[in-house]
Design brief:
The complex is a heterodimer of chains A (about 130) and B (about 160).
Chain A (H helix, E strand, L loop, with lengths): L2 E6 L3 H14 L1 E7 L2 H11 L3 E5 L10 H11 L4 E6 L4 H9 L4 E4 L4 H14 L6
Parallel strand pairs in A: 1-2, 1-3, 3-4, 4-5
Helix pairs in contact in A: 2-3
Chain B lengths: L4 H4 L7 H9 L2 H28 L2 H16 L4 H15 L6 H23 L16 H4 L15
Helix pairs in contact in B: 2-3, 3-4, 3-6, 4-5, 5-6
Chain lengths: ~130, ~160
């Protein structure tokens, strides 16, 4: 049985690249959202095991990334959250990691930047492809 | 103060290493991303231009950030630098001088698109380079020869 994943990112480029890496790892991408509010709705509906969440997206319906991150953490503490960002600021990274993010990946992606995430995810989801 | 973006960053429109990394992930992925660039960037530029015209600093920051991220996928460092400069202007809520930078950004997007169209096409090994001597025309002119401030990326 494959492990479900949801991608929340306003960039179609990032969504395509993240999807590529997740599928390669053995995840089944069950949904994609282009803003935080849509992402939260899809999360509640699809209940994925993994969520990738972009930090900086245009706010829609008054909901931003950090609020959605905190809501998902509260509603489903077991869901694995990978935070994706073009912001290399330590403070932003520490906020998400201290509040339970499994990883914080800096965009743009490369095989090197994704490698530590791949290793972490394989430890958390041992059934994924080795 | 004007910044010379040609001197500040690598002058190649896209980074061959970044392209090769995408190619290593699969020719199909690279091709889809190039298609996406051709389809998406004109809209991203139009949205940014509209935000600039309205003087909406918040929208300028976000839309410039999007274009910076788009360029980042291909190692388009000059495109990133120009979009990043506009993003900073938006962040500081001081949009003076952004019209000139935006014109440069739009021209650079044409250059990046041309480079991406070239990498998508199968080429003999000797031709797989972006720095083609005598290719100066791509830098300042669109295919129809429009001046930089009139260039548009056609869909």
């Amino acid at each position: 049985m494959t492990t479900s994943a949801l991608i929340i990112d306003d960039s179609p480029f990032a969504r395509k690249i993240i999807r590529h890496h997740l599928v390669k790892l053995g995840f089944r991408v069950v949904g994609e959202a282009e803003n935080a509010a849509q992402g939260l709705r899809l999360f509640r509906e699809l209940k994925p095991k993994l969520v990738t969440l972009d930090v900086m997206m245009p706010e829609r319906e008054g909901v931003g990334s950090l609020a959605v991150f905190r809501t998902i953490r509260k509603e489903a503490p077991a869901a694995v959250m990978v935070v994706v960002s073009a912001i290399p600021f330590e403070k932003t990274r520490d906020t998400f990691l201290n509040e339970g993010a499994t990883a914080y990946v800096i965009k743009p992606f490369s095989q090197f930047s994704f490698e530590p995430v791949r290793q972490k995810l394989q430890r958390i989801f041992p059934a994924l492809l080795a | 103060m004007d910044t010379d973006f040609h001197d500040a960053v690598n002058d190649a429109p896209v980074d061959q290493n970044a392209i090769q990394e995408l190619r290593d992930e699969g020719e199909e992925l690279l091709s889809e991303l190039v298609e996406m660039f051709i389809d998406e960037v004109p809209g991203q530029l139009a949205t940014l231009e509209e935000a600039l015209a309205k003087g909406d600093a918040g929208a300028v920051r976000l839309n410039a950030h999007t274009l910076k991220g788009t360029g980042g996928n291909f190692g388009a460092s000059r495109m990133q630098a120009l979009a990043g400069a506009i993003e900073e202007k938006g962040r500081s809520r001081s949009l003076d001088g952004t019209a000139a930078t935006f014109a440069q950004l739009r021209a650079e997007c044409v250059r990046v698109r041309e480079a991406l169209e070239a990498v998508r096409r199968p080429q003999p090994p000797a031709a797989r380079r972006f720095s083609v001597p005598g290719n100066q025309g791509l830098r300042n002119l669109s295919r129809d020869g429009a001046p930089p401030d009139k260039q548009r990326i056609p869909r």
